């Protein structure tokens, strides 16, 4: 009498994972990967569930977990195609999860060896696709292992191997399955999982597109990625009155607006020619009288920003409240709103001649063309300020300056370029040219306006986007791409912001007393 094979009764259930499942999952991973280092720790698993519980899926059979799929949501533009598993998962912590992202990223799918052949992996993939559609995400992307490649590594390149798998000339236990589930290979990634010896650290970048994806964007008024900057290299000349001065200002605003610029930057103390009206006074009294024009100029600047549809950084002007004389730069947005930034560091000359005092605050300003910071001249020579602004996700730093000699100009321009590199942002600087023979302490000018960028493959090799002719009244109009900054932050050759040793040092802004 033949003994009958005992019937196996399955009770399969698809559900989300819980922290109490960790022991079961760890055993499966160690068994599958045969490498303790490739299995998640309990803390990593806890972080994954806390970050995105809906994305951590399993199949259990009679209460025992037998198949698992892990995933997170990312803003894929922040990572690009040349990423590693550690980078996109935050080294397994899933602190890269972004609920506002556009892509479901599959980090792992694994099935208990005893349950292979039941197509449980397909069920998990289908569950992921359902999740992607329900969350209205653009696609599913994953880095796929190619464990079968180790048998052919001495014979062919990974690309050739992948082509043969696509053509079903070779069977790969992972890639063949993924291709059968409607994923396509975008490219080969190197050093994706360095510890994956079977794949020789190579991986396929796979994508499944959600055909039901509906991009949720406004038809008008979206945040710009390509931003056009207009810089005015201003000539100091005699103006008979404020109307004469503002006529020249309007000419330049009109000029850069005609090229559809998003910003117009004027120099520090562009209104200094009006000091000629106070030649009979000493320098400190004259600058305080010049401050009387500031309110009227601001009103006119606000009107110009609206009528010419351009955000104006109105250089800088003196402000005097009867007690303190300060140097202030106004941001006049094209929607009619304004903000201001005081100069914080006062040069010895400004203190001696005018009695200027520094402001006490700094911040990043939101605009319809990016987040911007403003540092007035000497302030750019203090690297802490640029870093504080960078920590507030500044995209563009504007530097209105006034320098009288070449060495003074080079201090400003050299430091401005350094701020662009170290803070991974764009920096725009402009000053004045020409002479004011009868204006004490503002008699000569030296300037070469410029736009600087970080220094990496996506940017100019010398970090100079554009540069004006030296000591000539002119304008610069040039585009900067804010999306390149996002890419640089994540995958740049060097990453100054990301790789700071915050365990060793930090910059702290002290509260005002």
From TrEMBL:
One example GO MF annotation: acyltransferase activity
Taxonomic superkingdom: Bacteria
Keyword NADP carried by entry: no
EC code: 2.3.1.-
Keywords on record: Acyltransferase, Transferase
InterPro entries found in the cross-reference section: Acyl_CoA_acyltransferase (IPR016181), C-N_Hydrolase (IPR003010), C-N_Hydrolase_sf (IPR036526), GNAT_dom (IPR000182)
SUPFAM superfamilies, per database record: Acyl-CoA N-acyltransferases (Nat), Carbon-nitrogen hydrolase
Residue ranges constituting the CN hydrolase domain according to the UniProt record: 227-482
Pfam hit, one: Acetyltransf_1
Name of this chain's protein: GNAT family N-acetyltransferase
Native organism: Echinicola jeungdonensis
